Amino acid sequence: MERIPVMVNGLPGKMAMEVAQSIAHPLKFELLPYSLTGERKKEVYIDVANSRVQLVRPQERDSIPFKNGLFAVDYTAPDARGVNAELYCKNGLHFIMGTSGADSLDDIVHGSSSLAVIDTNMAPAVVLLNTAMRYLARMFEGSLQD
């Protein structure tokens, strides 16, 4: 079975590193050797499991060899959401974006062939809190009126 190539963006951030380390081991996925990152990062490369990943700055984005079947997981900074979504859609990449931000990416994704899962926060504690609040709002509807 052919492994699915996955580009994890936002390294060396905590969530991106967790995902990259998970992807580096299973038989189904291939961790690609490059990751979109911001200007402030000093590193050029970062080691993930047994792989060396090049950190790609915004002005170097065009050097990434996008290929069919590539999948992206994005935990970059909020100001990169729109630009990265446009890049993924322009190149036909399917992607998961777990970067916080208020801007809607619907128009970018709907006009493309890309499939996307976009959530403003995928941290387990925040997801649990959001789920609990939705549950409480349904169970005690109107209890805080007035």
SSE layout and pairings?
Blueprint: E1 4-9, H1 14-24, E2 29-31, E3 34-36, E4 45-48, E5 51-56, E6 71-74, H2 81-90, E7 94-97, H3 106-110, E8 116-118, H4 124-139
Parallel strand pairs: 1-2, 1-6, 3-5, 6-7, 7-8
Antiparallel strand pairs: 4-5
At a glance:
With 146 residues, the protein is an alpha/beta fold.
Q: Overview of this structure, please?
A:
With 146 residues, the chain is an alpha/beta fold. It has four helices and eight strands, in the order E-H-E-E-E-E-E-H-E-H-E-H. The chain has helices spanning 14-24, 81-90, 106-110, 124-139; strands spanning 4-9, 29-31, 34-36, 45-48, 51-56, 71-74, 94-97, 116-118. A five-stranded parallel β-sheet has the order 2-1-6-7-8. The chain has a three-stranded mixed β-sheet with strand order 3-5-4. Strand 6 (71-74), helix 2 and strand 7 form a beta-alpha-beta unit. It is globular and about 55 Å long.
Give the SSE string: EHEEEEEHEHEH
Derived structural class = alpha/beta
Main CATH class: Alpha Beta
The radius of gyration computed from the alpha-carbon positions, rounded to a whole number of angstroms, is 17 Å
- For CATH, the homologous superfamily is named as NAD(P)-binding Rossmann-like Domain
Number of discrete domains: 1
Side by side, the strands of the main sheet go: 2-1-6-7-8
How would you name the oligomeric state of the polypeptide chains in this document?
A: single chain
Question: Can you give the helix content as a percent range?
Answer: 25-40%
The total of helices stands at: 4
What CATH calls the topology is Rossmann fold
Biggest sheet architecture: 5 strands, parallel
**CATH hierarchy: architecture:** 3-Layer(aba) Sandwich
Unreliable runs: none
